[in-house]
Amino acid sequence: MKIEEMNYLQLLDTYKGLITASRAEIAEMYFGLDLSLTEIAELKGVTRQSVLDAIKTVKSELDNFEQKLGLSGLKGEIKEFALTLEPDQRQKLIDILEK
Asked: In 3D, which of 61, 69, 66, 74 has the Cα closest to residue 20?
């Protein structure tokens, strides 16, 4: 998996609730399961082009959400900060972030 796709998987985890269920499912198959466009098209019963269009749309939406809200980046910064804390405090902060 490419680094860019790993970034989109993280963004998808953060913003999945803000995109349509169908697009989220396709994105999870593409970014999370590393399925090809053709494989996803066959599973969903749609054309390869429609899967590609959905992936492009999802990427655009996720980039837009992160640009405007910055939640994924903030979450990463907080996790980095957590590494400076004592183990019990660190785990408590991580547990809060994972909710």
From this structure: 61
What's the angle, vertex CA 22, arms to CA 20 and CA 25, rounded to 5? 110
Distance in angstroms (rounded) separating the CA atoms of residues 17 and 13: 9
The pLDDT-based confidence of 28 (bands split at 50, 70, 90) is very high
On the CB side of 43, CA atoms within 13 Å amount to 14
Domains of the chain: 3-98 (1.10.10.10)
Q: What is the pTM of this model?
A: 0.79
Give the integer Cα–Cα distance in Å for 54 and 23: 6
